[in-house]
Write a structure and sequence with these properties.
It is found in: Cytoplasm, Cytoskeleton, Cilium basal body; Cytoplasm, Cytoskeleton, Microtubule organizing center, Centrosome, Centriolar satellite. The chain is mainly alpha-helical. It has 14 helices and 4 strands.
């Protein structure tokens, strides 16, 4: 979307290369540029309008009235191009297709408008456009005349600074000021409001004829002593506090109060204005050729006296500075010598203290070494005694362990023998009646066991440890065989009884 400058038209471009022109107020489509065919290379481009032309018009001869004639002709010294009306005809051009070349695909930049690249740089650096231009933009959208009013920024500047945090209030205050206190300002647009300036001139003539006659005699019009105050609303001649006090009274009174304020400001400044003569300055004189003119337009004796006094003061200051520098050098040498002496004494004292400290450290180290040697000797004696006690205890423990092992082995063997004997005797006693037929065999086995036992009794002590497990397994096997035989005999007896 593009807003055409100095017009009330909005251009909207679509992806299919079609362009529509809309009326800004009513959003009515004024005309349409259809999309070119696919085989065509025509591309639409928007061009800025040419800069406005200004015609130079000679001022009418000003009439110098007599002292009693208060009638003054007010003329404008500035001529601007009037704004275009909306009813003006729109010139159109037919774009012809250029098959030999290609159009430059560059963005069009308006000669007197905004530069898109600069706007993008502002957005990239600050994230937003400057706030002070938003009120002016709102005023330009409110009425198209404000987009061409050159003094509008000067008029809105103090209110923008005053209402920095509320742009809506700022806009409404400026709009209220324009509607009420700027009445009839734009009737002679783009020229200054000649009617308002004439009113100010008439009021000044009523209150101070002498000042007005002074202005007339020196060709000073109301555009010089009144219009700058109005278009800046006194913001360039008053401080912030004075300006606030003034507009407290302006907004509290009739809109004509602002015009009376302009007259009052000139009347209050009448003394310096009347003293300002037209012939205080000579006419322009160019530099002479060959040699520059001598400039002696000043009181020579005062300048010479001041030069001599400055030279004398400079010499006195130089003498004083030299003496002070010499004293400072001597004082610096004395201070340096004192610092060096103090440093030497401090160094000697530090060396003496360091030597004493080293000697004390050596004595302490020797005492520590003697004490460490004594402690080492005592530790060695204690270790020797402990070693002897440990060896004796280990020897005793080993002997006791061997003795305990032998006693334990003997007790174990005795217990094993007793257990086997008791088991065998019990089984034999329990089954004696049932094993009469096996009595001879058991007796023979018993005699065999006793013979083997008596024969191997001498080697039992040596072989008992190695054959204990085998003997136990053998006894268990015999017991199992014995039980098995008993079971077999019982089974046979039961069969016999049956």
């Amino acid at each position: 979307v593009f807003f055409l400058p100095f017009s009330n038209t909005i251009l909207s471009c679509f992806k299919d290369n079609s362009i529509f022109a809309w009326e800004c107020d009513t959003l009515v489509c004024k005309y349409q540029l259809p999309a070119p065919p696919e085989s065509s290379n025509i591309l639409y481009k928007v061009f800025a309008p040419p800069p406005p032309l200004v015609k130079v018009i000679e001022d009418l001869p000003k009439k110098k009235g007599n002292s009693g004639d208060l009638k003054v002709t007010v003329t404008s010294g500035r001529v601007q191009r009037p704004a275009k009306s909306r009813e003006s005809k729109i010139q159109t051009r037919i774009l012809k297709q250029d098959l030999t070349g290609s159009f430059e695909k560059k963005e069009n930049e308006l000669s007197d408008g905004l530069n898109k690249k600069r706007l993008q740089i502002l957005l990239k650096g600050y994230g937003e456009f400057p706030t002070k231009y938003r009120t002016l933009s709102a005023l330009a959208h409110w009425s198209t005349i404000f987009s061409d009013t050159p003094y509008l920024p000067l008029l809105a500047f103090p209110f923008v600074k005053l209402f920095q945090n509320n742009q809506l209030i700022c806009f409404e205050v400026v709009a209220t000021l324009i509607i009420n206190w700027c009445q009839h300002w734009f009737e002679y647009f783009p020229n200054p409001p000649i009617n308002i300036l004439s009113m100010i001139e008439n009021v000044l003539a009523f209150h101070d004829k002498e000042l007005l006659q002074h202005f007339i005699n020196h060709d000073v019009t109301s555009q010089l002593y009144a219009w700058p105050l109005l278009e800046t609303v006194f913001s360039e001649v008053l401080t912030r506090e004075e300006w606030l006090k003034l507009f407290d009274n302006v907004f509290s009174n009739h809109p004509s109060f602002l015009l009376m304020t302009v007259v009052a400001y000139n009347v209050c400044s009448r003394a310096p204005l009347l003293n300002c003569k037209h012939n205080m300055l000579d006419a322009f004189v160019a530099l002479t050729k060959g040699q520059y003119p001598v400039f002696n337009q000043y009181p020579k004796f005062i300048v010479d006296y001041q030069t001599q006094e400055r030279e004398r003061i400079r010499n006195d200051e130089l003498d004083y500075l030299r003496e002070r520098q010499a004293v400072e050098d001597m004082q610096a040498e004395v201070d340096q010598q004192r610092v060096e002496d103090e440093a030497w004494y401090q160094k000697q004292e530090l060396l003496r203290r360091a030597e004493e400290t080293r000697r004390e450290i050596l004595l302490q180290e020797e005492e520590k070494m003697i004490q460490q040697r004594q402690r080492l000797a005592a530790v060695r004696r204690e270790l020797k005694v402990k070693e002897m006690h440990l060896q004796d205890a280990a020897r005793r423990r080993l002997l006791q362990l061997q003795q305990d092992q032998r006693e334990m082995e003997l007790r174990r063997l005795d217990d094993e023998i007793e257990r086997k004997v008791r088991m065998r005797d019990g089984e034999i006693a329990a089954t004696a009646k049932d094993l009469e037929m096996r009595h001879l065999e058991l007796e023979s086995q018993k005699r065999l066991y006793e013979k083997n036992l008596s024969r191997n009794q001498e080697a039992v002590a040596k072989e008992m440890r190695e054959n204990a497990d085998a003997y136990r397994q053998k006894a268990d096997l015999e017991e199992h065989m014995f039980h098995r035989l008993i079971g077999t005999d019982q089974t046979q007896n039961q069969k016999i009884h049956k």
